[in-house]
Structure formats: C-alpha cells, structure tokens
Amino acid sequence: MGRRPQPYIKNRLLDACADYALAHGLPDRLEPLATATGTSARMLIYHFGTRDALLRAVLGHARQRQLDAFGDLLRVRPDEPYTVTLERAWTSITGLDGRPYLQMFSQLRESAVQRLWPDFRRTATTDWLGPLEDGLRSIGRPELATLVLAVIRGLLMDLDATADTTRTDRAFHDFLAAVEHLPRDDDRLPLPGTRQRQQDQHRHGVGHVALCRLPTA
C-alpha cells in the first residue's frame, strides 16, 4: 500500500507555491513551482492530484491571504473615523504589502481564470462588500459600500496602467473627503426618469385594475 500524502507537507508546499505566485505571477507549468518549492513536478501531482488542482489551490490560497490581511485593515476602530481607516487601508493595499496581490491578480489571463475559478472575478469583487458595509455602518452609511468599492477598483486600474501613485493617492483622499458630505438616502433626489416611471407604473396599475373590473358578457 502506498503512502498517503501528508497534510503538513501539502500545506508547506502550498505556502511556498503561493509565495512564488505572488512574487512572479501564477505560472502555466508546474516546473517553476517545483523549483521554487525544492521538489519535483511529480511530487506536486502526488500531493495535489492534477496541475489545475494545484494552480486552483494556489490561487485560492493567495486570495485568502489577501482577504485576511486587508480585511483586518477595513475593520472599524473605535478611536478613529472610518474614512481614516479607509485611507490607511488604501495606503497598505497600494504599498509594498499589497503590490504582490495586485500584480498577481491583474496579470491573470481570462482563459486561466475561467478554467481554474470561473466565478473568480465576481467573488473577488463581492468579497469586499461585507467588510465595507460593516465599516461604513459605523458612520451611518453602509449603502455607500458599492460606491467606495467601485472607486477603489477604478483607481487600482488607473494605478496599474499609469504607476502614478501621487495622483491616485490624491484622488482617493479627495473622494474620502467628499464621502463625508454625500447626501443620505432620504435626502437624495430621484434618479432621472424615476419619477416619470413611477407615474407610468401607477397609471398602468390603475388601468389594469379598471380593466379587471369591466363586466363580462
């Protein structure tokens, strides 16, 4: 009877593979990971089953590391306004600690993502909504989570394309200053066309009720 894979060895290999992927990107082949972990491609297959199973595990492990690290940065701190918390999180996400994650995930080819984790793009977005809603609730604005996330993602794309840290840092700082003055739900004007649609729906509803009440022969 052959030996069973040892969980502690598998976990050690997974950590080392994730370290490599964060430093150099997720490879298509096993050989770079085997070299980085000091083992062979055959042993990686022994522990993980298939190449895609290993790459999927590496992608998920790196993603979990990012969530653990930056999810903590987004938590409410009783001694500071949440906009200050967000600014510090932005500095870390775009700094030396966060750069490996941004580079690895931005360089993933769509074909690889669809093969390894078809729902990755969606998950990588919605994972952050909960922590942001919880944090923004501390200032009474949980509904701004989608807006804040959209701005962060947009500025990260800008930073990836231009490497202009000064400009993107300033833009995020200005955005946070504006957040404190955004109107609340009760104070906002309806979106263009909303009032007309509501009136049309009301008329349609009245007409529908009237038609239903017409006597039948």
UniProtKB/TrEMBL annotation:
Residues 186-208 are annotated as: Disordered. InterPro entries: Homeodomain-like_sf. It comes from the Bacteria. This is TetR family transcriptional regulator.
